[in-house]
Design a protein that fits this description.
Layout (H helix, E strand, L loop, with lengths): L1 E5 L4 H13 L3 E5 L6 H4 L9 E4 L2 E4 L1 H11 L10 H31 L5 H21 L13 H21 L8 H10 L3 H26 L1
Parallel strand pairs: 1-2
Antiparallel strand pairs: 1-3, 3-4
Helix pairs in contact: 1-3, 1-6, 4-5, 4-6
The structure holds glutathione.
Length: about 220
Amino acid sequence: MFKLYGFAVSNYFNMVKLALLEKGLAFEVVTLYGNQSDEFLGISPRGKVPVLGVEQGFINETSAILDYLEECGAGKALLPHEPFARAQVRALMKEIELYIELPARLGYPEAFFGMEIAEALKTRCKAELLAGIATLKRHGRFTPYVAGDSFSLADIYFLYSIDLACGVAKKLFNLDLLADFSSAHELLALLNQNPHVKCIAADKEAAMPAFLAMAQAKAKA
Ligand SMILES: N[C@@H](CCC(=O)N[C@@H](CS)C(=O)NCC(=O)O)C(=O)O
């Protein structure tokens, strides 16, 4: 059985968890925060979660884990078979990660942890988020899923990146990133009806107090 290391508030952890649930693969969660201990760096070289424990060892980096699960071939496919369509899904995943998820992270300290960030960083965060959303509008199909008519890994990246990006944009810039992006709104509503997505959201809510306590203790240390 797979072991999924990470914590229920982590969006990347939740991406892998949703893929496992959608595929119907058995796994056990080992709750763990990212850290720089020698022991953890031995299985996750940058100290980040998620990590997937498999028969032969450990796999880190969300996209590598998702590729591994896909290549194992068990359960529902979350990538198309046809190479061109498959490449489009992978490009969308990458675009969401690089141009939406990562720029949103620049704003996390101020948006979610009550710290101030430098004006220059805020300016960059806003410009990159707007460019990232414009990229998704250009490339996403939203018919109704990000890459077309089937649920795919691109929807998983979308679901667990867009909410955080919207939270940052609202808090820092009083900006609704999806104001004129109704197809994205509709897809979010559709995805949020999925029972696995609901279960992950409930687990996240339950884990939030412990996560905030850990984050505050880390900030004081
Ligand atoms: N590139 C990594 C990013 C994972 C990541 O940023 N994980 C966060 C939690 S959402 C983490 O472990 N943070 C802990 C830390 O940086 O100490 C991936 O795709 O898995």
